[in-house]
Each structure stands twice: as structure tokens, then as C-alpha cells.
Amino acid sequence: MTVTTCNTKQCPLCGETIQAAAIKCRFCMEFVEPVGSNSNIPAGVKMPPKASPAKKPTEPKLLFERRSSLAAIAGKLTLAITIVLAIIFATFTPSAKITPIIGKYGSLETAMNYFLQYRLGVGLGLLFIAVAIIGLRILTLKSTRYKATTDRLEIERGVFAREIDNLDMFRIVDIAMRRSFTDRIWRIGTVELFTSDKTHPSLLIYRVARPRQVYELIKRASVEADNRRSVIHLE
Q1: Measured distance CA(58)–CA(62) in Å, rounded
Q2: Strand, coil or helix: what is 228?
Q3: What 3-state DSSP class applies to 124?
Q4: Burial of 91 (0-12, 13-18, 19+ CB in 10 A)
């Protein structure tokens, strides 16, 4: 008895086992490339193109990550510190240094006596309120984070409750940078974005350090995003 062995292969399209010399799969009825040369392929028959390996999507590149500078509230912070120092002075100055002053103004003697009697409680209360206002203002400013990648801008804000807004770079229509005289002294600035997004037609990157760098990075990323998506902004 004669035993005939035949070589086999897997169909690259459906995965079924077929003969090695087959040029057409009997399962999926598609033409396949035989092992060896292509000399057995009938004339006029087009082989299916080889599938090219899928390209891995490129990860968005981080452009910058900023927080608003404390220099943005430098004037208010100076005034608040002055008020706090005045409250501390009025609260904890020894009575012996205030009593001689009261004696010169008899009409204020009653009011000053009440002040000296309750000044510790009132002073501590005012001091707590002033420090709380300063601390909350600083926390609000520093809790706002701006993070930009080649694809989108993310703004995260809020002290107790957090809120995150996202803006795709291709939605940016125009960009502007604003710097007051004091901003130039402190080397900070505000970048304003005009967008085609209906929810956020305008966004501010408020008083950050190196604003010119932020302006250039966002402008370049916006143009590149428009080119990738073939976006044209109509004015």
C-alpha cells in the first residue's frame, strides 16, 4: 500500500488548514499565496494585499503643567498682612502703653475702656477671619492647575470640590497674551484662548510664570492639531 503525504498550511485569512500548494482556500473562497513561488497563480488573479502591521497610536506629549503664581495677589496679600499686623498690635499691646494715650482724649475714654475690656476676644476673632480669608485665597489660586498636551488642554480647579474642564487643541480659534505693568515686574501673565467650543468659548490661563512660553506652546500645538485633522477655522 502506498501512503501519500501532502504538506499543509494555514489560510492566512480564515485560519483553516489547506494544502501548501493551494492558491484558493476552499473554506473562505479567497485567494492565498502558495508556499514558494507565485508561478502557479493564474494570470489576471490579484492576490490580496498583505496586511501591514497596525501602527501604535502615538501618546500625547506633555507640553507644560502650570499653576497660577502667588505674585497674582501680591498687592492684596500685602494689604492683608498689614491688616493682620495692625490687629495683632491692637490686641496684644500692653494696656500700660495705651492708658496714657486715652487720658489725652477724655471723650474717647469710655469707648477705649470697652475696647480694652473685650479687645482680646474681638482681636482673636478678627485675626482668625483675616488669616482664613488669606489662606482661602491662596488655596484657591494654587489649587488651579493647567496641564497641556499635544492633543488637549486640561484645567482643574476647586479647593473642596474639584472641577475639570478639557479643551481639544483643534478647537482653539485664536490666542492672546495679556500682561499688566505689575505682571511684567513679577514676570507673570495671562493667556486667553478663544475657542469654537460652545461650553467654553473663552478660557483663561490666569497669571502663570513664563507666559510667553505657554503662549508659544499652545499656539504651535493648535496649528499642528488643525493640520492633523484638516480643520479650517472660518472667521
Answers
A1: 12
A2: helix
A3: helix
A4: middle
Which residues, at least 6 apart from 134, have a Cβ–Cβ distance to it below 8 Å?
77, 80, 81, 84
CA distances from 185 to 77, 80, 107, 177 (A): 16, 21, 48, 16
Q: Are the CB atoms for 9 and 20 separated by under 8 Å?
A: yes
For residues 190 and 215, the answer to whether their CB atoms sit within 8 Å is: no
Q: How far apart are CA 102 and CA 113, in angstroms?
A: 9
Angle at 148 between CA 65 and CA 178, to 5 degrees: 80
Q: Is 34 helix (H, G, I), strand (E, B) or coil?
A: coil
Distance CA 84, CA 41 (A): 92
Asked if pLDDT for residue 137 goes beyond 70, the answer is yes
- pLDDT classification of 220: cutoffs 50, 70, 90: very high
Pairing, β 163-168 against β 62-67: unpaired
Burial of 115 (0-12, 13-18, 19+ CB in 10 A): middle
Asked if 156 and 145 touch (Cβ cutoff 8 Å), the reply is: yes
Nine-digit cell at 217?
506652546
